[in-house]
Amino acid sequence: MLTHAGSGHPGGSLSVIDVLTALYFGRLRHDPKRPDWPDRDRVVLSKGHAVPALYTVMARAGYFPESQLVTLRKLGSPLQGHPDRTALPGIEAATGSLGQGLSISLGLALGLRMRKSPARVYCILGDGETQEGQVWEAAMSAPKLGQPAHGLDNLTVILDYNKIQLDNFVAKVLDLEPVLAKWRAFGWAVIEIDGHDFDQIDKALDQAEATVGPVIVVAHTVKGKGVSFMENDPEWHGKSPKPAEAVTAIREILGVAGAGWDDYLAKTPATRAIVDELRALEKK
Ligand SMILES: Cc1ncc(C[n+]2csc(CCOP(=O)(O)OP(=O)(O)O)c2C)c(N)n1
Ligand SMILES: [Mg+2]
């Protein structure tokens, strides 16, 4: 998608894809055919630049055809470079201007509690994003908002703690530590996990559902996860891979970086089509 667009954010998309996969396949109460169902769970991707990961799981879940994914960032496409709820049904909030998603999520969660909906709100924050002051205004409010009758027992925040922001390591720009103690001090229940371990993600989300009051899951992740030349390198925050790099990345993620690639392609026409398109792009 990013290679076809010629721009976008691979690192933060790959760090959050496992969390999104866990949410969209088995966790969310949602119906891709009814994106306006009032009692659907809400996902607010506050770190909106990672939206290619969200589009991917939404397409696979059935919100729109997977063939549309390559229209990312094209003029007139519903798949804009940052989420637009007026352009794509299933997107809950326009994000991308960092720092606002948690405030929006508080409002959504309170509204749902006031009308006794069983729906939950999942808000995903970037670690660099939490340097924004507005995040801490919302963090300070959440445990108090709606009390005593409508406390935000339906709000789960997931922090994509990949340790990298736009062009450097978070610890070098403006360190967040001690992260767990900070959120606890603001009155939140805190759960710490490996954000690429599906068992840990599932257990944390179960625990969050059973907790009274807002919960933050601090998910340790790797920016660029799964692609050797992207992992842990700030360079890959906001740069699209060239066609040959994209093919290498796909092979690594699929686990066929070594021998057997031609056999793999022969057996999986969908991957073959993607690779052929990338090769054609390279010749242009
Ligand atoms: C208000 C605002 N300021 C600056 C930016 C530019 N920007 C886009 S991504 C980014 C870094 C975000 O880092 P992080 O939250 O850690 O995201 P991730 O590592 O998950 O990609 C910045 C500064 C923005 N989108 N919004
Ligand atoms: Mg980050």
Break the fold down into its secondary structure elements and pairings.
Elements: H1 2-5, H2 10-27, E1 42-45, H3 51-61, H4 101-114, E2 121-126, H5 133-141, E3 155-161, H6 170-174, H7 179-185, E4 189-194, H8 198-209, E5 215-220, H9 243-254, H10 261-267, H11 269-283
Parallel strand pairs: 1-2, 2-3, 3-5, 4-5
Helix pairs in contact: 2-3, 2-8, 4-5, 9-11
Bound molecules: thiamine diphosphate (TPP) and magnesium ion.
Tell me the overall shape: globular
Low-confidence stretches: none
Average pLDDT, to the nearest integer?
98
Strand tally: 5
The biggest sheet amounts to: 5 strands, parallel
CATH architecture of the largest domain: 3-Layer(aba) Sandwich
CATH homologous superfamily grouping of the largest domain: Thiamin diphosphate (ThDP)-binding fold, Pyr/PP domains
Distance between the termini: 17 Å
Class inferred from helices and paired strands = alpha/beta
Can you walk me through this structure?
By secondary structure, the protein is an alpha/beta fold. It folds into two domains: 2-220, 3-Layer(aba) Sandwich (Rossmann fold), CATH 3.40.50; 242-283, no CATH class. The protein is built from eleven helices and five strands; from the N terminus they run H-H-E-H-H-E-H-E-H-H-E-H-E-H-H-H. The protein has a five-stranded parallel beta sheet, with helices on both faces. It starts with a helix and ends with a helix. The relative contact order is 0.15. The model has no long low-confidence stretch (mean pLDDT 98). It binds thiamine diphosphate and magnesium ion. Thiamine diphosphate binds next to helix 2.
